[in-house]
Design goal:
CATH topology of the largest domain: Pseudouridine synthase
Order of helices and strands: EHEEEEEHEEEHEHEHEEHEHEEEE
Radius of gyration: 23 Å
Distance between the termini: 17 Å
Strand content: 25-35%
Largest sheet: 9 strands, mixed
CATH superfamily of the largest domain: Pseudouridine synthase
Number of helices: 7
Number of domains: 3
Helix content: 10-25%
Shape: elongated
Length: 313
């Protein structure tokens, strides 16, 4: 079984938990993800299955979009609602005008200090392991790109505060963001609190898009499990023609497809002068990523196993 599957990750599970669950549902060991989500976060988690795990290298710098809520009044050690409160809890009232003005500093290319509870490594040890032991976490700031960060309004909190109370106190705000790979939205929430002079943390986060994959493509774990019982899980996979839309695609005839699978160079239809092309056999089988050698001569650097499913959406 080879393909790309988009899971709507539930809160309270790590990305690795989701991968393990899908492995059991599909009876497939080769399952990986295209970028983690924190346990608290929900939303788009792209998974690659079977030989399609080799696609991961093309998604390391994928743009991501989010919606979420920032809670003002206190910070946490993890910068999100899963962490322990740091410092005194303050009663604050934030106006939309204040928040929107503060948000301007978090757009474009900025310096961001990764959170201490992160997978960033310090002398080979993940920072979160040191943070859990209350040891010093000495991280360096990195450049990140925030392409969009909009405060969309006062919002409800994730810990039971009513919307009316939230709006009255002005202590929570909803946002929408679009960021380059490597950006921590937890840090944005933490840092905007510092900028305003009091603590803040990420109360909730939902990822709405990764690269070309959105919530429209996503299914829940429950839906996948039900489909698998009826051997209908193939209908939940993303159609291969939707993958990597920025890369040109060509369709190989039977003779060329046989050569490609044998690792031999072939002449392919001239679609563009692109260095890399996706090679399909028929309408639904991605068989290779090929590199141009010269003219119309290509060599397949990555060859995918034959698919046993007709993946449609």
């Amino acid at each position: 079984m080879n393909g790309v599957l988009i899971i709507d990750k539930p809160g309270g599970m790590t990305s690795h938990d989701v991968v393990n669950r899908v492995r059991r549902i599909l009876g497939q060991r080769a399952v990986g993800h295209l970028g983690t989500l924190d346990p608290m976060a929900t939303g788009v988690l792209p998974l690659v299955v079977g030989s399609m795990t080799r696609l991961a290298q093309f998604y390391t710098q994928s743009e991501k979009s989010y919606e979420g809520v920032i809670r003002f009044g206190f910070a946490t050690d993890t910068y999100d609602a899963d962490g322990e409160q740091v410092g005194e809890k303050l009663d604050v009232q934030v106006s939309l005008e204040q928040l929107r003005e503060a948000a301007k500093a978090f757009r474009g290319t900025i310096e961001q200090m990764p959170p201490p509870f992160s997978a960033k490594k310090i002398q080979g040890v993940p920072a979160y392991k040191l943070a859990r032991k209350k040891k010093e976490v000495d991280l360096k700031s990195v450049q990140v790109e925030i392409k969009e960060f909009e405060i969309t309004g006062l919002s409800d909190a994730s810990d039971g505060m009513s919307r009316a109370a939230c709006e009255q106190q002005g202590s929570c705000a909803s946002f929408r963001a679009r960021v380059a790979s490597g950006t921590y939205m937890r840090c944005v929430a933490h840092d905007i609190g510092l900028k305003l002079g009091y603590g803040a943390h990420l109360a909730s986060l939902r990822r709405t898009q990764v690269a070309e994959f959105s919530l429209v493509d996503a299914c829940t774990l429950e839906r996948l499990a039900e489909a698998a019982k009826d051997a209908a899980e193939e209908g939940l996979f993303v159609h291969p023609r939707k993958l990597m839309p920025h890369m040109p695609g060509v369709t190989a005839d039977e003779e060329s497809a046989t050569k490609i699978r044998a690792g031999r160079p072939v002449n392919l239809p001239e679609m563009s002068r692109a260095k890399l092309v996706k090679v399909y056999y028929g309408q639904r089988e991605l068989i290779a990523i090929a590199t141009r050698v010269a003219g119309t001569l290509f060599h397949a650097g990555i060859v995918f196993g034959a698919s046993q499913q007709s993946v449609v959406r």
